[in-house]
Amino acid sequence: MFNDQEKHKGGIATMAQVNLTLNQEEILLLLSSGNSSKAFKTLLTKSLNQFLVAESANQLGAEPYERTAERQDQRNGSRERPLTTRIGTIVLNVPRHRKQPFHTMLFENYQRSEAALITTMAEMVIDGVSTRKVAKVMEELCGKEFSRTVVSEACKKLDPEVEAFRNRPIEPGRYPFLMADATYFKTRENHRTVSKAFMVAVGITGTGEREIIGFNVFDDESNATWSSFIQSLKLRGLSDVLMYTSDAHPSIRYAMGNEFPGAVWQRCQFHFIRNILDAAPKNYKAGIETEIREMFNCETIADARKRRDEIIKDYSDVAEKAMEILDNGFEDSMTIMSLPTEMHRPLRTSNLVERLNGELKRRSDVIKIFPNVASIIRLMGSVTIDYNEALSRKKKLFYSTSLSKISQETRLQFISLAREQYKKAQAA
After folding, report:
1. How would you label 173-190 residue by residue, b for 16+ Cβ within 10 Å and e otherwise?
2. Is residue 267 within 8 Å of 276, Cβ to Cβ?
3. pTM here?
4. Whether 91 contacts 67, CB under 8 Å
5. What number is the average pLDDT over the span 35-42?
6. Which of 371, 344, 337 is nearest to 131 (CA)?
7. Contact predicate 375/310, CB 8 Å
8. Phi and psi for 173 in degrees, rounded to 5?
């Protein structure tokens, strides 16, 4: 059972339920047939056909043969339409209506990322940089070969959507909180295999909504490239950033310090723990990690500082370098303690971006080496759009009342602290 699109009755939005009518005997018979591909195709076809029927009922305002004053239109049969999926091409029965065309987001939503994956792999085959394994994967995904013309047409449809998403205007003042990070993908360039930095920025609104507001590909992570990326966000409208969360990469801090000098830095606690443990002897890593996590969960900054001092005292003789990192980075990792309590957990790490990076890596595993930078933007951009849509359906991190609790005094303290952080970073 799963939810269909919203249905409006008397001005009130309701959710229709789709009930799959496959019984256990039928499912077992399909799965025991010895042809798992055919079995899963049949299950997926039946599921999606029932989803389309439910969508049709929503738009008509009535179930089949149902008499109701809310009926908007009449059914007019159906037409067959193929849908390419990871388990091959299936044929669905798309409903038809007499007066108004039947509308469904199923094909667009299901195939955006798949189209990007298929076209990128097809490019690899066409450009002569593929392996037998890649060709096999492509055949398994789509069940057919792609000519140069088909790939070209698919790319023409996909690229404008990706470009529109990553270059869309940003509403000024909408994102008081920002998270930024980068991951790397290999691509071919001038007959060599090189790594490219894929930079991503996630904005968090004053009402706790998460949105991916930008991404781009650069040669590396330098002051110049991070500045270019942050400047692009600013030119599109990003303004009034109160706080940003990131790891301790100096170029992110350089770019933010120049473009948003009043934005205070929250050092990602996840990355900070990793930095500390990397410098700790193996036998003490587990104990140090446990105690640091307890420190981060303290209710007040005074308690956290006390816990820090105890940890340093206990481990300085056996993990001197690790304790030095803890001492030097502690204050920057606890910036969130000046915010309302309910904002601490959502903003203390950049794990939100890390999870996106993990999904990007997972989806790129079958590619291994991209044929060009454009294919990175195409595939990773399409996955990013899908991920952004998933974020929009998640529960808010906090509410507008939380933002209103931040006093003007705290905001002024943040501006002063941001300048101190930037000077410290420049001197390092």
Report:
1. ebbbbbbbbbbebebbee
2. no
3. 0.71
4. no
5. 68
6. 371
7. no
8. 80, 0
